[in-house]
Structure formats: C-alpha cells, structure tokens
Amino acid sequence: MPLSRTSLHTFLSCAKSALNHAVKHKSPVTFVIGNESADLDSLCSAVVLAYLRSYSPSSKTNTLYIPLSNLPRADLALRPELLPVLKHANLKPSDLITLSDLTSSPHYLPVEQTKWILVDHNALTGELGKIYSSRVVGCIDHHDEEDAVPRDCEEEPRIVEKSGSCASLVVEYCKPIWKELAKTVGEDERQWNAELARLAIAPILIDTQNLRDEAKTVESDMRAVRFAEGWIMAGEEGESYSSQKYFEEIQNAKEDIRHLGLRDCLRKDYKEWSGGEGKVGVCSVVRDIEFLLEKAGNKEKFLEGVRNFAREKGLSVVSIMTTSHNDGVFKRELLVWALDANGVGAAQGFAKDSQERLGLEGWKGGELDDEEEGEWRRCWYQTKVENSRKQVAPLLRASLTSS
Ligand SMILES: [Mn+2]
C-alpha cells in the first residue's frame, strides 16, 4: 500500500525517524543522495525525488525514501542560497537530513541492508562510495556517464542525460507521479504542491540563469520550469510569484557571504585534483579579491589564511577564482600560488601557456605577486571571462602533470 501523503516538513521528519529506526534495528533503508559538492541542484533534487517516490500512488511497497544531503550538518551554513528556497517550501535547514545524522550514530548500517539512488552524479564517491557503491540501484543525472550504475535498475530510474540542471530530469521523471498525486487536491495538497515546486524549480533557475544561459538550457529545463510554475501559481504565493524575482532572491542569497570567515569563503565552493606528484585546489568565490582582503583585515592576514588553507589540504598549488559584477560589469580574477618545488614548475608552466588564452593581466600592478625559495605567486585579472573553473582547472591540472 502506498504511504499517505504529507507536507514536505512532515515527510522530512518521518524520514529522519525512519533513518534512526533503521540504524537501531539494522533494518532496510533506501537513500536518495546528491553529489559531494552538495550544491542547490544536488540537495533539492534528492528531496524532490525522495518525496515523490515515497508517496507515489502506484507504489506497491511502502518504502520511505530518505533524502540524504551529502555534507556534514555544519556545512549547511556555507549554502546561504538554501535559505530563501527552504523558506518558500516551509522548511528550515535543520529539517534536512545530513551525513551527520548518519555518522553521529555509533551503530552501523549493514551494507546489504541499504539501497542508494544517486541524483546529480552517477558514481558514488568518497567515503560512502568505498562502503556502499555495490548497493547503488538507480540514478538520475546530467553529468557524463561513468558506467558505475547497473544498466538494469528495474523499478528504479536510470537516467543520464544532458540538461542544465539535474532537477529538470527529476521533474520529468516524476511528472506522472506528481500528476497522479495531484488528483486529490484540497487546500493542503495545493500548498504542498507549491512548496515542492519551489524546491524543484530553484536549482533550474540558478543553473540556467533563469533559462537565459543558452549554452546550458535544454528543452527539459524549460518544460520542468513550466510544469513546476503551474503548481506555484496555484498556491498561496502564486499571485506574487515571478521567476525573475525568485531567481534574484536565490542569487542574492548565494552571493551574500558577508557572515562567512575567510576560510569558509575558500572552502565553500572548493574542488581539488591530483596530477603528477602533487595536488591542485581551486576555490571559487562569488566576490572579488578586494572583498577577501578586507575580510581578512590586510594583505598579510589574507596570505596567511590562504597558506593555512592550502597546508590543511596538502596542496602544491592553491588557486582562487573570483567572480564579481560591481557596477554591472562581470569580472573574473585568478590567483595562483605554488607552495612547493613541484607546484612552482607547474604554476610557471600554466602562466606561460594560459596567459593569452585566459587574457591574464597583472592585478593592481602585481601587488600580490611574489617569488621566493620554493614558492611562486601571481594574481591576475582574467579578462577572457567566458572561461570558468571548468576550463581553468584542467589547464592547472595539466601543468601539474607535465611539470
Ligand atoms: Mn547539477
């Protein structure tokens, strides 16, 4: 028998109790989990899919799918963009289920008692991957196919398709369930639909710049937005809703990192790669270098903070890529700092090879540049702003491999 539908808020608290119960009694549990970057797309896709799968009227089981946010609870504070989204869905960050709920327990979840459905990635990575990757039973994702999920997933989805946002694919897959559920529509259900739609639409608006980024947006993004907006319009906030307003509200929250310290600004959107004999780490920051300098207090404290961060991560090269749009002009800056001999060769090679391609111009007359024994640092304006981390990180990584 299918479970009877509740609000998102009640769903998440039921899922939390179900998880605690499963841990205590070593009983079966099915997770829906996003990727390790735990961005808006990953977090929202997991909740939306888990909710609709749990309450699917055609479900023959009474499985409660547990949406697991792939980050420790404390790191939710690094996702300020979640706040407006959760608020419109009548949720708080504390309602989400995180890795802390899984690992704070002294009990052990037996591998064979778990099932995992991946959203926004298609290979279970990190610590979880080491333990549970044999238990992945489905995925919905918009990244490149990694052939890690079984081809035949039976009753679970196995979708890997290009789209601006994974949430669009989740909405497409769940459309029949959602429509079926919505046949029973009272006042409560109408509002629950609107709240769910707020979660579903948020990452699509952010990942496609409100469907304006032509390089990223595809048909399924547009269809998902239209479908979700129908539910929002029918809800309590329907009259005051506009996609542009919602997009700006989330975007502004995302860029509001005033309350974060320097270290949190650096680790908020951080990725690292190994190459050759070293590791390169790239921090993407949504404010400019000047903002970080002010945050740290002065140049020395800024450099000390960045150096400590690089040491903590064991990096040969640490890089900071900033974006800003002061006075409506979109700008990028790039700082590259090599901290060992291996890194110095790589960073110098990178500078030589990428100067032209990235349009690198010295930042404030080389104010942050430095060279000393075993270290090398440059800061640039990156005038060819069309190159994001997706382009720059492989260049850095390649230089590390070839140095
Ligand atoms: Mn995504």
UniProtKB/TrEMBL annotation:
GO terms for cellular component: cytoplasm. Signal peptide: none annotated. Residues 247-400 form the DHHA2 domain. Keywords: Hydrolase, Manganese, Metal-binding. Its cofactor is Mn(2+). SUPFAM superfamilies: DHH phosphoesterases. InterPro entries: DDH_dom (IPR001667), DHH_sf (IPR038763), DHHA2 (IPR004097), DHHA2_dom_sf (IPR038222). It holds the Pfam family DHH. This is DHH phosphoesterase. The lineage of its organism: Eukaryota, Fungi, Dikarya, Ascomycota, Pezizomycotina.
